[in-house]
Amino acid sequence: MKIGVISDVHSNILALEAVFQDIQKRKVDLIVCTGDLVGYGPYPNEVVEFIRKNNILTVMGNYDDAVGYERMICGCDYPDPKDMENAAISLNFTIETLKEENKKFLRQLPYEMILKFEEKSIMFVHGSPRRLNEYLKENSKEAQEVMEDFKYDILVCGHTHIPYVKRYGEKLLVNSGSIGKPKTGSPYANYVILNISQEVDVEICSVNYDYEVVAKEILKNGLPEKFAENIRTGKA
């Protein structure tokens, strides 16, 4: 069983389309998204409608929750006041731009999903099983705590925008990275493929796309210049 896992699309339809094409070439059996379809980028409706049209299994991200329910904050961790101001601009733009039917879709997304293949149980969440917006960074105290009490075989999350694979005894923690707003130091979209058999193999994939078009569209829509820089550099 091959599962392509995408995450943190963040209103970047060009990255989503490029990754979708790459996944199809690799002949996966299933695609799962670990949330944050919207925010930061200029194409929220296009992304949600692509996910809906292609019946991609998706769990709710903190940004999906904030936009779907039209909250005042997105639930991200921004110690810098300027970043907090930019996040507010992004949230307001996305709430104003997204169609009501697409907001309804976001509100109906589950907080978690549990699937079983080849006797392996897999939980998909956005942040962590404990909180929608908790960061499970590689080798972090939070990740260690979560995996100590984890009752399934594999935990797949997103939210940090940096893909990684970490084993905790017999259990596996996989972060699916970000296709729409990577923080790897590269503008390429990244995602993971889980190959589930008696053993579990995880491949971290990266895909080039025309990110300059997205950067220019960000500026055209009056979104912060830093968002365009993020897209061009893959840096936070």
TrEMBL record:
The keyword Metal-binding applies. Keywords: Metal-binding. Its EC number is 3.1.4.-. It comes from the Bacteria. It holds the Pfam family Metallophos_2. Its cofactor is a divalent metal cation. InterPro entries: Ap4A_hydrolase, Calcineurin-like_PHP_lpxH, Metallo-depent_PP-like, Pesterase_MJ0912, Phosphodiesterase_MJ0936/Vps29. It is an enzyme of class 3 (hydrolase). Residues 1-198 form the Calcineurin-like phosphoesterase domain. GO terms for molecular function: metal ion binding; phosphatase activity. The keyword Metal-binding applies. SUPFAM superfamilies: Metallo-dependent phosphatases (SSF56300). GO terms for cellular component: cytoplasm. Belongs to the metallophosphoesterase superfamily. YfcE family. This is Phosphoesterase.
